Amino acid sequence: MNLDSKINVILGDALEVLPSLNETYDLFFIDAAKGKYPIFLEQALRMSKPR
User: Fold this and answer.
1) What is d(CA 1, CA 13) in angstroms, rounded to the nearest whole number?
2) How many structural domains compose the chain?
3) Which domain holds residue 27?
4) Rounded to whole angstroms, how far apart are CA atoms 44 and 29?
5) Which residues, in sequence order, are CB contacts of 10 under 8 Å at separation 6+?
6) Confidence (pTM)
């Protein structure tokens, strides 16, 4: 099964990249300093698909 067309990998500093993204996503992988999780979670929730 080829999933290349369904997977979007975005590289960069999340604090800079996340606010500029306006699409919705199915999945988020957050690997960051635990103290910054609330910031990343807020952005992830903003960009999450409804279901």
Assistant:
1) 31
2) 1
3) 4-47
4) 9
5) 17, 21
6) 0.69
